[in-house]
Amino acid sequence: MSLSIHLRHAFPSISLDVTFEAPTPGVTALFGPSGAGKSTIIAAAAGLLRPDACRIAVDGRVLGDTAAGVWLPPERRRIGLVFQDARLFPHMSVANNLRYGMRRAEPGPIQFDEIIALLGIEALLARRPHTLSGGERQRVAIGRALLAQPRLLLMDEPLASLDAPRKAEILPFLTRLKTTLRLPVLYVTHALDEVNRLADSVVLIDQGRVVGAGALADIATRADLPFAQRDDAGALLHCEVAGHDAGRELTRLSGGGVTFLVPLLDLPLGSRVRVRIPAREITLAGKAPESISMHNMITGTVRRIAREGARRSAMVEIALPDGALLSRVTPDAIGNLGLVEGGPVLALIKSTAIEVLGA
Amino acid sequence: MHLPLVLPPVVTGWLLLITFGVRGPVGALLHDWFGIRLVFTTAGASLACGVMIFPIMVRAIRLSFEAADPGLEQAARTLGAGRLDRLFTITLPLASPGILVGGIVAYATCLGEFGAVITFAASIPGETQTLPLAIYAALQVPGGEAKAAQLSLVSITLALTGLLLSEWFAKRLNAMLGR
Description:
The structure holds two protein chains of two kinds.
Chain A: E1 2-10, E2 15-23, E3 26-31, H1 38-46, E4 53-58, E5 61-65, E6 70-71, E7 79-82, H2 94-103, H3 112-119, H4 134-147, E8 152-156, H5 164-180, E9 184-189, H6 192-198, E10 201-206, E11 209-215, H7 216-220, E12 234-245, E13 250-255, E14 258-263, E15 272-278, E16 282-285, E17 296-308, E18 313-320, E19 323-329, H8 331-337, E20 344-349, E21 355-356
Parallel strand pairs in A: 3-9, 3-10, 7-8, 8-9
Antiparallel strand pairs in A: 1-2, 1-4, 4-5, 5-6, 10-11, 12-13, 12-15, 13-14, 15-21, 16-20, 17-18, 17-20, 18-19
Helix pairs in contact in A: 2-4, 3-4, 4-5
Chain B: H1 3-6, H2 9-20, H3 25-34, H4 42-67, H5 70-78, H6 83-111, H7 115-121, H8 131-140, H9 145-176
Helix pairs in contact in B: 2-7, 4-6, 4-7, 5-6, 6-9, 8-9
């Protein structure tokens, strides 16, 4: 099953021409700078903007196809849209806002009580939207969209208008939604941490074009794509809790075909977690040092070495049995170690540098 | 549509008279087919008032519709609401403070209507006599000052009440909408 979007539209300032396909269910992040055309894609998918040419289909159901003359209006698309500004109806209580879409949709799998519990908004039901904080408002807006039983959920920078603490308050709810409701989600953002925590696949958009698309773990470790060219570039791996060592206060995570040691986690065995390892935190070595504080010494193969001119550095892609790591080092270090593409390399990672992002 | 706002009320009344009079093009039809006579009747006075306040109402309603956030309508659309559904559940409720205030102002204007009513419906006590008409009539009679003063007091009270009421309503409704 998949979400497939092809769209062409000319604005006075920018022309948009994007085609991508994303697996469903799952969260697909549309990532790119402001003005790249991300919100236009969302508006077209919702039916609020009719592009010059497009074909949009979710799991085989065509929402709009200009070539075939098909264009469903927004109210018949069964699509949930969460705006950057929550857009709650000010003349209704939170409960009536939540029920607005629900009353107009056929009954579906998403239950009222389940959603208010998931989003932690039980206490807000009788309140009016203007008495809510920004974070609360956004949670209600998400609930309202979900209760309309959408077949596709669109989120247009839902956290962009919130400050860091409010954002941190909502992200866990979104992670929970993602694992509980198996729904296709198209999520627009220009914040890397949201992508790392939520996305399964990524579509990189720049100046109206798709510059890269695929699974997040793959896209994150491609030195030729903008993701890996950021200061905070790093690899993302899906891991499983393989064991705890309470005595040494360490947890073993297996993922990417290797095992990592991280500071003890309070998670049951078998839990699935996302792990992010920043490129600047990985030290490369030719052979194992004898006495060192680092717990993780991982053998891999150099997949690619990409010079980063302006930074006076180089990005090294390290292939693992099932995944990849990124390491940013100086070109001098590459010379000293004699690294060549296809050759072996040892990646040294401090346990404390491995970020565990939750499920 | 805004013509009655700028036209002298007497002219509006006269135009009504030649249109809705028993020999006027519309008035003759009403009279011959349905036996309805508007001139010099309470209904006629109401019609004259209605024509006078029409532009005020239209303006109030239009301004409140224009002030409504189109983003909320978009949100309602994505939640499955069709055109009429959105009108009754989103647009009208959000425009209601403006419409209500427009209504109260229009009502107060009606009570004070003079020129159009006297021209079209005359000044028949208990039938077509509005407050200002009664005050004017009282002043034409020797010794009618006391009655005119009483009526003016009633008029002032009504006007003030209307004004305060509309302010209070608008405040209440806007507070409810979080504005």
